[in-house]
Structures are given as C-alpha cells and as structure tokens.
Amino acid sequence: MDINPESQSTEEPGETRRASGVDLQARREQRRETRRNQTYKAFLRNLMVIGSMNEEDAERAAISVLCVLEQRLFGEEAAHLEAQLPGKLQELLIRCERHMGKPATKFGKDGFIQMVAQDLDVEPLEAERKIRAVFSAVRDQVSEGEIDDVIGQLPSDLRELWHLTM
C-alpha cells in the first residue's frame, strides 16, 4: 500500500484534476497560446490579401513598418498601439532592436518610406505599397480611437499613408 500523500487521489472516476488546477491550468494555457496563434495568423492573412503578399513577406513587412512607426511615436503611444496588436506580433516588435531604448525621432513620409525600403531591400514605391497595406491591416485590428491617437502624432505627409486606400 502506497502511503505517499502526493500519490493519493481525491478525484472521482471520470473527473479531471481540476481540484489541483494542474490540468485545468495547462488547458487554459494551451487555449491561450492557440488563440494567440489564431489572432496572429488572421492578422497576417488579412495583410496577405490587402498587400498581395505571401506569408513571409507579410510578416517582414508588418515588423518593418511597425518598428519604423514606433521610432516615430512619442510618449506611451507605441505601447498603447502594441497593446491592441496580436500578442505574437507584439513579441516580434519587442525584439526589434532599432527602437529599443532610443527616443522617438521626427521624420516625414520620405524618411519613413526610405527606412522601410532599406529594411526590406525594396524600391521606395514597393515600400510605400507595403506600408499602406500594413497600415490598412492595423486599422482592421486596432480601435479607431487608437488610430486617431497615432495619426495625431504624425506630420500631414505621413498621415496620408494611413488615409489613402490601396
């Protein structure tokens, strides 16, 4: 007979280990991770359709454009924007070393396009197309109030990238 208290079960037949929370917690974590992946994949699929890109290009474009945008936002605005993006995309942006620990800087549309073009190794016209696609996909993901806050920090020439459709 085993007298180890950890090996004794108080479960009724057919019950899971909900009393201890182990299985329930593991299931919750699995559901949370599944949801994070689904939300991220939905964002990418939307961007792929909007920008006529494959998944790899869509992911690279999203990271590049959002990283450059975060370099332009002052105060807590970058964090507020990130909070409404899919969790998996937030993690990718956190790893973006270009904006970590650096203060926001002022640049306009041409500078924005040039940074994205260099990062993605594409021509400026292609970079602008990708920027517009990412901004459109972000608009579908983020509250209108947050978009207004972001746009409010941008110069008029850079704002037009948010307003014009593909």
TrEMBL record:
Residues 1-35 are annotated as: Disordered. Residues 14-35 have a biased composition (Basic and acidic residues). InterPro entries: DUF2267, DUF2267_sf. Residues 1-11 have a biased composition (Polar residues). Pfam families: DUF2267. This is DUF2267 domain-containing protein. It comes from Cystobacter ferrugineus.
